[in-house]
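thread: overnight batch results

M.L. [08:02]
morning all. the overnight job finished for the chain we discussed friday. pasting input first so we're all looking at the same thing
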Amino acid sequence: MSTPRTTAAAPAVGHSLKHLAFHLLTPLLMCLGMALAYQGAFHQPEPHHLKVAVVGATQEARALAGAVQGRAGNALDVTTLADRAVAEQGLLDRDLVGAFLPDASHPELLVAKANSDTSAMAAEKVFQRVTAQQGVPLAVTDLTTPSEGDPTGQGLFFLLVALSIGSYGSVAVIGAAGAALAMRIRVLVGAGVSLAVSAIGILTAGPVFHVVDHDLAGVWALGWLYSAGVIGIGIGLHTFLKRWTTLAMMVLFVMLNFTSSGGVYRPELQNGFFGGLHSFWSGAGFLEGVRSLLYFDGGAGFGGHLLTLVLWLAAAGVLVVGAARYERRDRAVASRGVGAGAAEGGGGTTVGSAGAAVAALAADASRGEGPGVEEEMEESAVAI
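M.L. [08:03]
and the structure it wrote out:
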């Protein structure tokens, strides 16, 4: 015998559909953001002020540099250098992408592929056109030696990806499941998680896959600074954004972060927006800092990249302090509500208890507790 339909069924279905549609906003916005960010950053890599040099103090070298600059326009910044030693130093300082040594029979291009393999390839294409007109092949000399497990330099970018996912994926868990904990305890948990994330990163990148074959302690320290900054910012944001924290973290540390890190293309092959972000975003600070440490003897701007990571960690600290004060204020408001509810009862315990219950629920909601915890953690899993 069939069960008769009730008039309550239709409203229940409508409410469920509205609830479902609301929660589908997060993955749809992630889809839109990823499409805009990745396609905007990578869809048409073209040189923008790619820094190259022609080596030689002769009139012919200066004429060649002028001709290359004239044909390339804003795509290149072409200079002339006195000799090979100066050119090599410019590459090792990461001030140049390529240095061309003209020769009638054996022209040579100096590059540092550890700086950026894709940028080195762009410089190679430029001077291959020059030597093709001469009818001679171009010899390419790489001044850097990549690690055994990372011949293209892309392995470091994937280390950044692993650290980022481990870090921002932990934020929703700490913020939601640990919402009842005091802020200082959440911060301590976050510090412990960042140590674990950075340890996993260096163990896999080092002994397992040999992407990092020396200076493991230094790379681990940079990874910890990066991860701690990401987690700290996430813990602070969660107080204000609640279930929207996952989307915010995706924007900050995936959409804008991976695209501006220099892992695929450095700024000289990107548009001005992502190239500009590269100068101060945290992912670029980590990736370029590791490159400088591993392949350029800790020089080539390493101090600036380290400062970038420290400043992001400091910003996380400021945000966490602000979030802690905000939570204390909410708890104070909730406590006053409990007292007011008890006073209104005037001997009627029912009214007082109801007021206390409402105030307690409000306090829980302000900290992100309640039914939304599971939903938020599920959305975090979808984001990962």
